[in-house]
Specification:
It is a single chain. With about 600 residues, this protein is of the alpha+beta class. The protein is built from 18 helices and 24 strands. The longest helix is centred in the N-terminal third of the chain and has 23 residues, at about 135-160.
Length: about 600
């Protein structure tokens, strides 16, 4: 017999009754029933109940074994009585009578309970992550992550993509987020950078003629954490394609994403969620900001924002009327059926708007053939009728307003749309809805400096190419840039790349870069493009965010095996950590205390 196990803790069924087996695992639960002691033994695969009689000479060993101690037990498989069958586990019809027991490892007093879903807080959970990962939900989430990555790899390979690995030690990039730097021992005073993304390398693979690349790529960015962004590192499905249009990129990746979501749509849910089929809906950036107040709209929310600036132009509601004349806009957020809500609900929304930095949310309620609310008396019948037409509302509904500069009004209206949709129970939680946001502006105006800047990705191909850069108002130029969004979560940015040096130099010139600056900062890429580069494009959906959505978790921490804290600390391994003076000397580095702090 094997020294540790003949079966896993998920294998035994009624047909094994009468067999002598050996199991190894962790003590998950213990139940003392007087003359019998029951232990649930757990391993990676499942749980099996084992039992020992108080008269057994081995009883003391079983009784004193703490939860999460590791045991090896041998004994006969027996059928449970009908009243003790546990239908919640696959092994619930049988149990093992302990004839031999060995304690492989004794557990200390536990800082958190593995057999409980109680939340012990970030610090405890991450300091003892090896225990946290033993918990059923976390174990299933991490297994889901592995299965999703395996599925993605298979689907990408079947779609004709080839997996390549790109360097981890590379050069610092002047664009994007803050780099993590790695000092060079053999080149004193010089530094490598961990890649924020394999962007330049994957483009160079296209220049090298490999045609279709993908990688489950680690990326490193020194930026603050958010619920949908881990500090330090994350993984993405990085891919690139040669001789393609934007439509080709969409057609290649949509079946992969739709397929993975369909495959795992039932994970951790009572009923499988529906998945929007390919082709995914495409929404121009300007339309997304107008109708949803966001470039990552949650399409499960049916509410659509309307521009009602003309309703208020010249009206008696002077605050909005004067604002419209001064270039501001008025955005209306519909609230169907909200006339039935109590006054306190409207007041809470106003308070919420003030917390967002707005003066409040004005509103109109349509009820019993009349218009009510703080703004209604300032609008005549014709304006109220037009308001109903613009918003699609009628009796029993309400509408809220956000008035400001276009971008600020869009953001407030978008946040209000989300809040109202959730409050009114309008969001369909049972589906994954994808969309592409397309036609991003190539440039934007910095209101503080008055300078034109890149709005999204400076290496994207402008729509219209060099001619557009030479003849159009820069603020009217759109780029072949796109984001893929699912349920209000941005999964990826992507673009058709600028593969021509002349177009790249002109694009950067408009943003205030001299040719010398571009040649200096992006010499590697420009050098390669001058030797024949194919038109190419791609994207990089985030693995962590995909798994977070499928697991129906609110935070990436729940789907990453060893995440850092919000302050980018690894409490379990003690990182970041100080290094020895000898190590610093070897790297020819000297620590300098931050301003305002003492060296001690």
């Amino acid at each position: 017999m094997h020294p540790f196990r003949t079966h896993t803790c998920n294998d035994l069924r009624t047909e094994h009754a009468g067999e002598t087996v050996r199991l190894s695992g962790w003590v998950h639960r213990k139940r003392d029933h007087g003359h019998l002691l029951f232990l649930d033994l757990r391993d990676h695969f499942g749980v099996t109940q084992v039992v020992i009689d108080t008269s057994s000479p081995l009883f003391e060993t079983a009784e004193t074994a703490r939860l999460e101690s590791v045991l090896t037990v041998s004994g006969k498989v027996v059928l449970r009585s009908d009243d003790t069958i546990n239908p919640r586990i696959p092994t619930g019809e049988v149990e093992v009578q302990i004839a031999e027991i060995a304690v492989e490892s004794t557990a200390d007093q536990l800082p958190l309970q593995v057999n409980s879903d109680e939340d012990y807080g970030e610090e405890i959970r991450l300091r003892y992550r090896f225990l946290d990962l033993r918990r059923d939900k976390m174990h299933r989430n991490i297994m889901l992550r592995s299965q999703v990555i395996t599925s993605i790899r298979r689907r990408m390979t079947e779609a004709g993509f080839t997996e390549f690995q790109t360097p981890i030690l590379t050069a610092s990039s002047p664009e994007g987020a803050r780099d993590y730097l790695v000092p060079s021992r053999i080149h004193p005073g010089r530094f490598y950078a961990l890649p924020q993304a394999p962007q330049q390398f994957k483009q160079l693979l296209m220049v090298a003629g490999f045609d279709r690349y993908f990688q489950i790529a680690p990326c490193f960015r020194d930026e603050d954490a958010r619920a949908d962004r881990s500090p330090g590192e994350f993984y993405q499905l990085d891919f690139e394609m040669s001789f393609v249009t934007q439509d080709d990129v969409f057609a290649s990746i949509e079946p992969v994403l739709a397929g993975v979501f369909e495959e795992y749509a039932g994970f951790n849910k009572e009923t499988p969620w529906r998945v929007s089929p390919a082709p995914f809906r495409r929404i121009p950036y300007a339309e997304a900001m107008l109708r949803y107040g966001s470039d990552k709209p949650d399409l499960r929310n049916p509410l659509e924002i309307a521009d009602v600036s003309e309703v208020f132009r010249g009206s008696d509601f002077k605050i909005f009327a004067k604002g419209v004349e001064a270039g501001k806009v008025v955005r209306a957020v519909p609230a169907p059926g909200a006339a039935a809500q109590p006054r306190s609900w409207f007041d809470k929304l106003n308070d919420w708007a003030r917390q967002q930095g707005a003066p409040g949310l004005g509103y109109v309620v349509f009820e019993d053939g009349a218009a009510k609310g703080p703004i209604a008396k300032f609008l005549d019948a014709a304006r109220l009728d037009r308001l109903k037409q613009e918003t699609g509302l009628g009796d029993g509904d309400a509408v809220f307003f956000a008035s400001d500069k276009p971008n600020d009004a869009a953001l407030l209206a978008g946040a209000a749309r989300t809040r109202i949709g959730e409050d009114l129970g309008l969001v369909d939680e049972g589906q994954f809805l994808f969309c592409w946001i397309v036609d991003y502006p190539m440039y934007e105006l910095d209101e503080k400096t008055g300078k034109i800047e890149f709005s999204h990705n400076p290496f994207s191909m402008p729509q219209g190419g060099l001619k557009a850069l030479q003849t159009q108002d820069p603020l009217s130029i759109k780029a072949f840039q796109y984001d893929i969004v699912c349920n209000g979560v941005e999964l990826s940015s992507g673009a058709i790349r600028n593969h021509r040096p002349d177009i790249m130099l002109k694009a950067f010139e408009i943003a205030g870069y001299s040719a010398e600056e571009v040649e200096s900062q992006f010499s590697g890429m420009l050098h390669a493009l001058r030797y024949g580069a194919p038109p190419h494009g791609g994207a990089a959906p985030g693995i962590d965010r995909i798994v977070m959505l499928l697991a129906n978790e609110p935070n990436l921490r729940e789907v990453v095996a060893f995440p850092m804290t919000q302050r980018a600390e690894d409490l379990m391994m003690g990182a970041p950590a100080e290094v020895s003076p000898a190590h610093l000397r070897e790297l020819q580095l000297r620590l300098v205390a931050p301003p305002g702090t003492s060296k001690g």
